């Protein structure tokens, strides 16, 4: 694809010496290759010759030997170190692993990763099923919220679709039920509610199409684009939709509020973080 847009020039992956280290590094290196990015591998912990040899041996097994890779070793609190590194190293994308709930086959984000997702200065990619062998990305779902950052998220979604070779991108407009302004009590009010739904769908689809039409053709020409309006709770609805259509990647705006009340009363992305339907890319503009 053309190189006019490259939102992810530097990628950070914080690694631990766990049983999944090899597959995580291979997957992360693959993603960095597709994005044409530099990869920084960060370990928060003591450096030793044994650990250094282990990570270097894994890197030698990656498929993309021309990748620019830097390994950093830091001590301290994992959240503080990763967060500050994202700032000082001008990271565009932080990659984090998600954990599976063994009993319910759900994926969730640990406390440190969830905090980083809320607070970090860059975009975040949460991986739920890293693979040593490449699993093709065929279908990407992105939010089409009526919000200031949505144009940026959709642009990045098209970039990711091209980078990963995805054939389809679906833009989901989540419409709150309260926007219908009709209480269904009989056939007449039901007809009125359905008419209002169609008007809202048309309004949202027109807004999203205007965004798509404003994008450069090199981003959109080779992608099958679909718009989908959904009535329901924001965050929960799009997560459920991504699961039903078996999307390979879900892309969302970064949460705009991170205060105490927002942690007490989940909104938008919090529903997804507690039960990830697929890999999740959270788009945040960097300064």
TrEMBL record:
Matches recorded under InterPro entries: Rossmann-like_a/b/a_fold, UspA
Pfam families listed in its UniProt record: Usp
Gene3D superfamilies registered for this protein in UniProt: HUPs
Record domain UspA: where: 8-126
SUPFAM superfamilies (UniProt xref): Adenine nucleotide alpha hydrolases-like
Protein family per UniProt: Belongs to the universal stress protein A family.
PANTHER family given in the database record: STRESS RESPONSE PROTEIN NHAX, UNIVERSAL STRESS PROTEIN UP12
Name of the protein: Universal stress protein
